Amino acid sequence: MNFYYVVFSPIEALIASQLEPKAFGAYMARGSKKGSAERLMFAEVEGGFGDYFDWEYAKENCVTHASGEVKHSLYLSIYRVIEHIPLDRYKNIYLVNKDGSTLCLEPAPYKTPSNWRGYGLYKEQCPVHPFVVSSLEPNMLANYIINDATKKITVPAIIFNDIRIIDFNEKEDTGNIGSMYERDLDHLKDCISVVQNHKGKITKTVDRSFDTKFSYQIIDNGFYIAKGKGILFYPMLSSEQLKEIDYDWGRSANFF
Q1: DSSP states of the chain
Q2: Domain span holding position 31
Q3: Rounded-to-integer distance, Cα 124 and Cα 132, Å
Q4: Are 72 and 137 contained in the same domain?
Q5: Torsion sign, CA atoms 129, 134, 137, 140
Q6: Is 69 in the same domain as 134?
Q7: Is 150 in the same domain as 228?
């Protein structure tokens, strides 16, 4: 049986594999040789749709080796992937640590963030990558990025997550968020002030090269996959949930 995975960080790719999701995550993070280690994020999708991707090529080449070893990965595309995938083909999202441990996030109905405070912090994951502050809730931000005709630049689809917002007065009350707010705190405050006090400024880029600073600890409500007018929501698990569901993954990701 073949599985199809959309890797959306650190690269954008569609990959066929005979490995089930968690085994695929471990393989992609650690590779087949000791010493390699890479964090990545991907989603499983149901294949066989449309004619942009070569599904016949996948069926013919993603096959078990003569030795009996399964095919680990077969790249079908490494460019402009998510814009060609219908939202109804997405299954679960998987977050992989460098040690290969893999957490599954399941979709849930979209809802307005309960902790909304008039602005949000967002890490765009694919196909663009900045860290931004916006006056828009996640679904409105997705619509603005994809469909706003007044914008000079748009993207056809996007995967992003929101980021936990610091308590500027009592940073320790924000919880364990690693080293995210150790630097450039004044710059972040300035960016937030811009979108709060300038009516025409909907988004403001905080950092264009945030990938190296990103960690799973700072994810707030979860991940969003948007295309056209639609949006999918994948809630992030809390530290308490991780302790019950997958303590080892949470510890590897420095949640506790």
Answers
A1: --EEEEEEESS-EEEEESS-HHHHHHHHHH-SSTT----EEEEEE----SSSS-HHHHHHHS---TTSPPP--EEEESSS-GGGS-GGGEEEEEEE-TTS-EEEE--B-----TT--S-EEEEEEES---EEEESS-HHHHHHHHHH-TT-S---SEEEEEEEPPP-SS-GGGG---TTTTSS-HHHHHHHHHHHHH-TT--EEEEES--GGG--GGGEEEEEEEEETTEEEEEEPPPHHHHHHH-HHHHHHTT--
A2: 3-105
A3: 8
A4: no
A5: negative
A6: no
A7: yes
Q: Where residue 158 falls among pLDDT bands split at 50, 70, 90?
A: very high
CA dist 249 and 100 (Å) reads: 9
Tokens of 8: 């959306």
Q: What is the pLDDT of residues 183-194, one digit of tens each?
A: 677 888 899 999
What is the share, in percent, of the chain residues with pLDDT greater than 90? 75
**Spatial separation of the C-alpha atoms in residues 127 and 150, rounded to whole Å:** 21
Closest CA to 3 of 40, 32, 46, 42: 46
Could you give the CA distance from residue 255 to residue 234 in angstroms, rounded to a whole number?
19
Q: In the structure, what pLDDT confidence band is assigned to residue 36 with cuts at 50, 70 and 90?
A: low
- Is 144 in the same domain as 48? no
Q: What are phi and psi of 196, to 5 degrees?
A: -80, -30
Quick check: 23 and 30 in contact, CB under 8 A?
A: no
